[in-house]
Amino acid sequence: MSDTNAHPARKAALGFIFVTALMDVLSLGLMIPVLPSLVKEMAGGHTDAAAQWTAAFGMVWGTMQFFCSPILGMMSDRFGRRPVILISIFGLGIDYIFMALAPTLWWLFVGRIIHGVTAASFSAAGAYIADVTPEKGRAKAFGLIGAAWSVGFIAGPALGGLLGKIDLHLPFWVAAAMALLNWLYGLLVLPESLPPEKRIKRFDWSKANPVGSLKLLGSHPDLPRLGVVSFLMQLAHNAYPSVFVLYTGYRYGWDTAQIGLLMMLSGVLGVIVQALLIGPIVDRLKERGAVIVGLVCFVVSFAVFAFAPNGWIFASGLFVSAFAALIQPGLMGMMTKRVGPSEQGQLQGANSAIMGLTAIIGPALYGLSLAFAVRHEQTLHLPGLPLVIAGLLALGGLLVILSTRRARPLAVAEPGLDPAR
């Protein structure tokens, strides 16, 4: 295919992955305001029991991500990206129906297990981006996917809250419809991005488990350091969903409306950085420079959040933390250049496994540290302790990336493949 025809094909394929990410995150966002209420209702109205079940839901979801992301990533290396993405989206839609019909907490718990498995398709989606995007444009492409996440988490909870007022089960039905419509759209228009000659010859279970998948990070120059940066960054970021609401309510007395507005502001700022600024910044500073800037802003913003004496100063930190959106696209741009086409799925699986691991560790780390800080407020005087911990983790990531070489890696993936081939 000529370059003239290939470029629109790449744009169309990337557009579908953007829509897929947006629809998936919208459906995830729909659950945020209603799932705890539904759990509480099923737990007989007891807040303590609901909190325990909600924590269990979060941990099992992260566990499924940790174990299943490498499997789906390697499956996409063996059988192609298209079938893995489409089967996962279809499974996600069926799972939302399963949870909408859930009569008990255990039924809902099983639904969360299935959800953790099907949502692991992000590893195949990330590999698809690496397939269809030239090396120079990968950070920008991953930034657009990050923007889809931000938009989804702005609109999803708002829509879920409105639908939940009508019926707590209604958001699940809407999420199911979104996922199944997205599956149908992909079934009709999504081309394969990885041709047969670029695929691995056999599925290797020794590499498809989390430990085996993570071994990939030690098999190429600089990947171990970049994997450490990814882990520290994602674990630091986990402070937001873990303690943001509880911390701001305790420290500044914010109600749900104020917290909602701040979350919306954070999402809007993230979209601006991811959709409009990542490309120019990466063009000027390259991926490594963008990651360094993002981590510096991450460290500074956590310091503001932890020590801000009032809510206005805390809110000002959001304008700094928005530039942390540079980190993940820059990292993905650096990492995808260091492996070949047949390893992109395994790489994305390893990254998703890291995300799942931090989703298991983060809630306990930050929840327990906040509880400790509140219990010892009279002597410690540091309710922002969990945010201090997150800032130190981000600082560790900054020190590691500064030790990563600038030189071009030895193993370089081929530039964007034509998905229409």
From TrEMBL:
GO terms for cellular component: membrane. The keyword Membrane applies. PROSITE patterns: MFS, SUGAR_TRANSPORT_1. Keywords: Membrane, Transmembrane, Transmembrane helix, Transport. The chain crosses the membrane at residues 12-32, 52-72, 84-107, 113-130, 142-164, 170-190, 226-247, 259-282, 289-307, 313-332, 353-374, 380-402. GO terms for molecular function: transmembrane transporter activity. Residues 13-408 form the Major facilitator superfamily (MFS) profile domain. It comes from the Bacteria. Gene3D superfamilies: MFS general substrate transporter like domains. It is found in: Membrane. SUPFAM superfamilies: MFS general substrate transporter (SSF103473). It is a multi-pass membrane protein. Its main location: membrane. Resistance to tetracycline by an active tetracycline efflux. This is an energy-dependent process that decreases the accumulation of the antibiotic in whole cells. This protein functions as a metal-tetracycline/H(+) antiporter. Belongs to the major facilitator superfamily. TCR/Tet family. This is Tetracycline resistance MFS efflux pump.
